[in-house]
Design brief:
- The protein is of the alpha/beta class.
- It has 23 helices and 14 strands.
- It has four domains: 177 residues, no CATH class; 173 residues, Histidine kinase-like ATPase, C-terminal domain (Heat Shock Protein 90); 132 residues, Rossmann fold, CATH 3.40.50.2300; 131 residues, Four Helix Bundle (Hemerythrin (Met), subunit A) (Up-down Bundle), CATH 1.20.120.
- The strands form three sheets. Strands 1, 2, 3, 4, 5, 6 and 7 form a seven-stranded mixed beta sheet that branches.
- It is elongated and about 135 Å long.
- The termini are far apart.
Length: 729
């Protein structure tokens, strides 16, 4: 059933309705009162005034409907009717001993509803003063007021005024409250729609991030592996191009996600101590290379009195520096860019505990027209010059800079002249952790890291489980872990992960978040509930880079999380953090490399023993220490393999025994990885074959002697390799 009452759209609509109600009410009431006054014996002048008021009300209604000039009609109503006609009716209709005071109240309330701003206050003040003056005048000069003939006339006048005023005021209040309720309903609906849209945008960005980052992870990781294992300059050039293109795509994704986080108010800026010299070094290394690539000069100026250690949101500062420096390179065709860093005293820094960390990016590029400077920090605003000259980008960089700087309670300003260049200056308050000066560039030293490169660590005693439904992701993780000698098992579902944990203990678990049937958090919950790995850190693998992801995963019980694409450096640092003493560093800038002539000789020497030495050399860059470590690790399997040899004939069918079969399965799985790490391709393939046919007990029984024989052949080669390496000392 439809609502018979037409909905009120806005405040103006409400005022128009109130005016119509008052005008129609004034028309009918004035006509009735005029006629009634004539009947009860009041002077003819009184009736004529009422009929004239009725006529004026009718004229105002018709004029307002035809022209739409309701505000003019309201002003006429207040001046001519409320102040003029009401005054005549007051004098001729009994003064304050009549129903006129009720009409005075109605007039004031009507004015409050119909008029706005200073005009409303002026009219109300005028009405109150005028009506008060009329009452005082009637009290002091009663002879000037036409008094009603008897009590019956007074009662009749009040009985007419009371319902008229009550109905008009009640209707006005009803319409006003109806408008308020409608506005509240619309606001609540708008709030729900905005929340729904925000949730939909967040879900879309999360899915987009996952769908793009997952294949991008494979591309970037495999590209890193190719770059690290080729000596061809041409191929390295191709991998550099791939890395640059992937970085641009990844940067675009991150910009969109960053802006989404900031606009939603969900971005968090954790503050941690950081080395000022490391930030300066990173900036110089990154942007000097970018400037040279663009045929630009590059200068980094840093005040040597900068505190050596400050506390702040380092990731946000890096983002600000990166966006401003990136824009400087992007919008400069000739000349160069200059980056400056210095500190200014803060009001809170009288005791030396705070400073204003300042950063400036200056270029000799296209500049920004003066009329566009005000819009330069708005999202998607790239300026007319950058658009005309075909610069790539989304126009989000400076918007992110502004929002991040604001979030850090800082300021960012821009000075620019079209055709001459731009200068962006950022000032951010920072706490001083170590006030010792950073000193000149020569004293900054090399950037420290727990591992110089990822392939500089090994952990042959560690066991890791990789859980991911995507085969390419599992392959990438396994390939990245291969040089470390870590035993890495991989499964494609949470259910398989639970089965593996029932038969083996792991030092670390990498788990994808988005998997069918049982996702990452649910699998982790099952692991903890069944106490399969209470003390084993579980690392989340996710392509979700939205705000709140880290908190959500940590609250779910994950020890840490890696965002796809996973870099070799990230993975190496994480292994060092969680595997602790199991990790050994085997490579540094001065590591011992196997001479090329000796490498060629050893390749020929070991090939008859089924060892392809080039496989190992590609993994470790020819590190002698790594060759020794891998050989020692492989030979450690000898004792366990002899145990299988000694038990091969026991119990009639030892291979059919469940416990024996499980032990054999895990042994050949480990031996497969160890064989591949030293270039024992045949042995690795043999172990992989037995692993695939673990349920075929008859085949297992036949293959054990073959496996043992092949292992002994390879072991002789590894022992020979160790002897040859001893000669190089």
């Amino acid at each position: 059933m439809k609502n018979p009452i037409t909905p009120i759209k806005n405040t103006n609509d409400l005022k128009i309705r109130i005016f119509r109600i008052l005008a129609f009410g004034g028309f009918f009431v004035s006509a009735i009162i005029g006629t009634t006054n004539l009947i009860i014996g009041l002077p003819l002048e009184n009736a004529l005034i009422c009929w004239a008021t009725a006529l004026l009300s009718l004229v105002l209604i018709l004029y307002a409907n035809r022209t739409g000039r309701y505000r003019l009609c309201v002003n006429i109503t207040i001046i001519f009717i409320f102040l003029g006609v009401f005054t005549l009716l007051f004098v001729e209709g009994g003064g304050y001993k009549s129903g006129m005071p009720l009409y005075f109240v109605m007039a004031v309330v009507f004015t409050a509803f119909m008029v706005e701003g200073r005009e409303m206050y002026a009219f109300i003040a005028l009405e109150l003063c005028w009506y008060s003056a009329l009452c005082i005048y009637a009290y002091r000069h009663p002879e000037s007021i036409s008094v009603l003939e008897n009590e019956g006339s007074l009662v009749m006048d009040i009985l007419i005024a009371l319902p008229v005023v009550s109905i008009i005021l009640a209707t006005t209040m009803f319409l006003q409250l109806r408008l308020i309720r409608r506005n509240q309903t619309e606001l609540e609906q708008a709030r729900k729609e905005a929340l729904s849209a925000s949730e939909a945008k967040t879900a879309f960005l999360a899915n987009m991030s996952h769908d793009i980052r997952t294949p991008l992870n494979t591309v970037m990781s495999l590209n890193d592996l190719i770059a690290g294992r080729t000596a061809s300059d041409e191929i390295r050039g191709w991998t550099d191009d791939i890395r640059l293109s992937c970085s641009i795509l990844l940067s675009l994704i991150n910009d969109i996600l960053d802006l989404s986080r900031i606009e939603s108010g969900r971005i968090r800026l954790p503050e941690t101590p950081y080395l000022t010299s490391q930030l300066l070094q990173e900036t110089e290394t990154t942007w000097k290379r970018a400037a040279l690539r663009a045929a630009l000069s590059f200068t980094l100026e840093a005040d040597g009195s900068l505190p050596s250690v400050m506390t702040g949101s380092l990731d946000s500062i890096r983002k600000v520096v990166s966006n401003l420096a990136g824009n400087a390179v992007k919008y400069t065709e000739r000349g160069g860019i200059t980056l400056r860093f210095w500190a200014e005293p803060a009001e809170e820094g009288i005791d030396g505990k705070h400073v204003i960390f300042c950063f400036e990016a200056e270029d000799t590029g296209v500049g920004i027209p003066e009329k566009e400077l005000e819009q330069v920090f708005l999202p998607f605003e790239r300026g007319s010059l950058s658009s005309k000259r075909g610069r790539e980008g989304t126009g989000l960089g400076l918007a992110i800079v502004k929002d991040l700087v604001d979030a850090m309670q800082g300021t960012v300003t821009c000075e620019s002249r079209e055709g001459q260049g731009s200068r962006f200056t950022v000032r951010i308050p920072q706490a001083v952790q170590d006030p010792a000066p950073v000193g000149p560039r020569e004293s900054w030293g090399r950037s420290s890291s727990s591992a110089e490169t990822f392939d500089s660590i090994i952990a042959p005693d560690a066991k890791i489980l990789i859980v991911d439904d995507n085969e390419h992701n599992r392959q990438v993780m396994s390939t990245l872990l291969k040089p470390t000698l870590i035993l890495a098992d991989d499964v494609e579902s949470g259910r398989e992960a639970l089965e593996m944990l029932e038969i083996r203990n792991y030092d670390l678990i990498f788990m994808d978040i988005m998997m069918p049937e049982m996702d990452g958090p649910e699998t982790l919950k099952k692991i903890r509930e069944t106490h399969l790995a209470d003390d084993t850190p579980v690392i989340a693998l996710t392509a979700d880079a939205l705000a709140g992801t880290k908190e959500r995963l940590l609250n779910a019980g994950f020890a840490e999380y890696l965002t796809k694409p996973v870099s070799m450096k990230q993975l190496g640092e994480l292994l060092i953090r969680y595997l602790g003493s199991r990790v050994r560093l085997i490579r540094d800038p001065s590591f011992e490399k196997l001479p090329e002539d000796q490498a060629r000789r050893l390749k020929d020497l070991l090939l008859p023993m089924h060892i392809h030495l080039e496989d190992t050399l590609e993994l470790d860059g020819g590190s002698v220490e790594s060759l020794r470590m891998r050989a020692d690790h492989f030979l450690a399997y000898r004792e366990e393999l002899e145990r299988f040899s000694g038990n091969a004939g026991e119990n009639g069918d030892p291979a059919g025994n469940d416990a024996f079969r499980e032990d054999l399965f895990h042994f050949v799985h480990s031996l497969k990885s160890a064989g591949r790490s030293i270039g024992a391709r045949d042995l690795a393939e043999l172990a992989a074959f037995m692993e695939r046919h673990r349920e075929d007990t008859s085949l297992n029984r036949l293959m054990i002697p073959v496996l043992i024989k092949e292992y002994r052949t390879v072991s002789e080669g590894e022992e020979l390799l160790l002897k040859e390496l001893e000669k190089t000392k």
